[in-house]
Amino acid sequence: MNNEDLIQGYFSNSLTPNQEQLFESLLAEDADFKAQFEFEKDLKRVIKEEESEVLKAKLQTFETALKHQADAEVKTSWFNWKMAAAVLLFLSAGWFGYDAFFGVNTVELYASNYNPYPNTVYPITRSDTLNAIERQAFVAYEAKEYENAIAAFNTLSNPENYISFYKAQAYLELNELDKAKELFKKNIKEVSNFIAESHWYLALIYLKEGDKIQSKKELKLLLEKHNYKRTEAKKLLNTLS
């Protein structure tokens, strides 16, 4: 694979792990490769911006024509009114699809990057009775019975600091994004063992909500201080830039 193929593979997210490693190495050590990469990235950005301006201009033209038609109270055929309705629908709701067509589809990015975090803290093979409720919670978590897991987590009298992280995961699986965000933020603030992971999942939640600014902020915090999901975070940040 030559340098051009390597760069295009990066932008299409089709590199293998070995190719990703080679890409990162060349980017850090080969000035010509880095210059070529930066040129390609800037070129894609310019093309995207030009496409954006063209679409906006067309939409403004359609909207102006419709307003003039309404002001003049011109009688139109059923066909023209149907066309006008379609244009107005595109103007009012099309912006959601616009970002997916010319920019980035944040919902798809979320789906392609999201995986639920596995239970790494409490082996459910343990049979002790001292932590019976915690065991019950993680049994439910691994069985994807997230409502039961949350209920069990909530009954723990002196929960370990990782409980908020796993409870956030359960809320995320139930699509209760606000509750998940609150717990991930709490997890970061309390300096637990899952700070990097919490930044990653916060970035994904903001992606799902379409908030690219906050998502980029979480990704930058992750890359500045941690190594968790480093390659994925760099790719995602580059896509959003």
Features:
Serine Threonine Protein Phosphatase 5, Tetratricopeptide repeat; mainly alpha; elongated; 2 domains; 0% strand; 12 helices; 74% helix; 241 residues
- At the fold tier of CATH, the topology name of the largest domain is Serine Threonine Protein Phosphatase 5, Tetratricopeptide repeat
Proportion of residues in helical segments? over 70%
Describe the biggest sheet? none
Total separate domains? 2
Calculate the mean pLDDT score and round it.
79
Question: What is the CA-atom radius of gyration, in angstroms?
Answer: 24 Å
CATH class of the largest domain: Mainly Alpha
State the shape: elongated
Given helix and strand content, the structural type is mainly alpha
Describe the structure.
By secondary structure, this protein is mainly alpha-helical. The chain folds into two domains: 1-103, no CATH class; 113-240, Alpha Horseshoe (Serine Threonine Protein Phosphatase 5, Tetratricopeptide repeat), CATH 1.25.40. It is 74% helix and 0% strand. The chain has twelve helices and no strands. The protein has helices at residues 3-11, 17-29, 31-71, 78-102, 106-113, 132-142, 146-154, 163-173, 177-189, 195-208, 212-225, 230-240. Helix 7 runs antiparallel to helix 8 and helix 8 packs antiparallel against helix 9 (177-189). The chain is elongated and about 60 Å long. The protein starts with a helix and ends with a helix.
Protein topology:
Elements: H1 3-11, H2 17-29, H3 31-71, H4 78-102, H5 106-113, H6 132-142, H7 146-154, H8 163-173, H9 177-189, H10 195-208, H11 212-225, H12 230-240
